[in-house]
Give the backbone structure.
Amino acid sequence: MKLGIDIMGGDYAPEQTTLGAIAAFRELPASVKLVLIGDREAILSILKREGVDAGSFEIVHAPEVIEMADHPTKAIQQKPNSSIAIGFYLLKEKKIDAFASAGNTGAMLVGSMFSVKSIPGIMRPAISTLVPKENGGWGLILDVGVNADCKPEVLNQFAVLGSLYAQHVLHIQNPKVGLMNIGEEEEKGNLLTKETHQLLKDSKEIHFIGNVEGRDLFNDKADVIVCDGFTGNVMLKLAESFYGLIKKNDLHSEYFDRFNYENYGGTPILGVNSTVIITHGISKAKAIKNMILLSQEVVQVGLSEKIAQAFSKETVA
Amino acid sequence: MKLGIDIMGGDYAPEQTTLGAIAAFRELPASVKLVLIGDREAILSILKREGVDAGSFEIVHAPEVIEMADHPTKAIQQKPNSSIAIGFYLLKEKKIDAFASAGNTGAMLVGSMFSVKSIPGIMRPAISTLVPKENGGWGLILDVGVNADCKPEVLNQFAVLGSLYAQHVLHIQNPKVGLMNIGEEEEKGNLLTKETHQLLKDSKEIHFIGNVEGRDLFNDKADVIVCDGFTGNVMLKLAESFYGLIKKNDLHSEYFDRFNYENYGGTPILGVNSTVIITHGISKAKAIKNMILLSQEVVQVGLSEKIAQAFSKETVA
């Protein structure tokens, strides 16, 4: 298995991305090869300084960088020698099995759509975030930002994507799916959630438990919470700011420590024809390491193939 | 000034509502008369037990109760002798200057629309919630649940309603208005927020500072945050659950203590032709006392009249 890492992506690249790759290398089995995509000289100098044999990695030189502020579509086209453009080229050519980056999220999305493309039958790929449950487990919420406006049919697909992720990566059997809403009752909600509720209720592919509310994000009512990308993004940023306030107020608890994004390494772009993982631009070595470990796991369990399989059945039916 | 209190509303009525009224009576000036609407025998027996002179209050007997689970519209019609129906009758007849309740929120909304009605020019009344800001002040978010689907013009009105509330009740001069969105840039968002952004930008009635994000709820970027009732309700319940987790994890800080809804007494229904205040069904005496004090303040500053004035100008222009 070969995992491609965008060494130039994120606020602390190439230093922290390379350190993260070194840390991941030390935890991964020998059968997993890490492909470091970025400025060769910079990478070699960090490896040397850290006393790591450069032969442990495959290094692909990428002389250009897509900056965080660059326009995604333009950047991908105008910087063909950037780490992101090269990463997607390698992914499309199947020279690598996954591509992971803390860089420009928009460029990662656009790159996915231009190169490996979405899985046939998928209307809109989505990104999710992990949610630490009070009972010690993890849940999932999606979409958290790719699709600001969604149709009910799109949310219905998110429910399937989230269920497959929860089942194969979080190892939750028969994951409970909840619809984010403003009341428990079936007739509550806005036009989108009322219509989506009916689709989810009739779906045979998921285990729908009904509506959930903002207060249910952290309890065990649902393992997978479905919402449009606007609502998900607002919730995600609100939850992150709350965690920030807890740290700022110098409060400590084991439970809240689990909110630290550094521990879970990002999210796959669900619904594309390969494994693409993105994470926070502010990621340091620990978060990068976990992003790489997540990539390995997502490739290992064949998530993308499992999604393709589920949606090919759907198309036939 | 006469303030009507729904003694039968909420999970702990009539005990805690009456105790709350007693506590408010002790803090309010003699010129403010509290009108207790509910089961006369129950009220008198609590007042007697507490050693409070029943003559300090005006008591209006209401033999029926609208339960929390009752259907709002049906309940208002089928229980004309309920405390809520009688409260709105008194409010419409101007026998009281405000009506406050911890009871069935839907019935309070329907009652407002049937009796005092919305202010001419107002498309949709809204409810807000106070947000404790990190800098020690308070902010406002609206709508938090009445209007699940909103048009841009409705959000534009919420911006005015929220600004007037912030100015006259929170005493914030020239309050900064932010639009809840998923990015700071003007072109970010869903269809609703993109269109709303343009309206707010062109508005001469408010001080618009642009988009805010989920992470900006508690900082001082905006005093008034505008969103549709779906997004606001999800945020409100998420924030409440976070506060619950902090208490459950036995964490303490002065900042988070300010999240306790008991301290701020509910919210006016903004945009109706009188002062109507609602609060949580789980309110105990302290929250009820603060709901009554808030009623007094909202009547005192003439918020409803100020809103009517602002919107009558708008209609002319």
Q: What stands out?
A: The interface with chain A takes residues 134, 145, 148-149, 180, 182, 189-191, 193, 213-219, 228-231, 233-242, 244-246, 248-253, 255-256 of chain B (CB under 8 Å). Chain B has a mean pLDDT of 95. Residues 229-248 of chain B form the longest helix (20 residues). The longest strand of chain B covers residues 126-132.
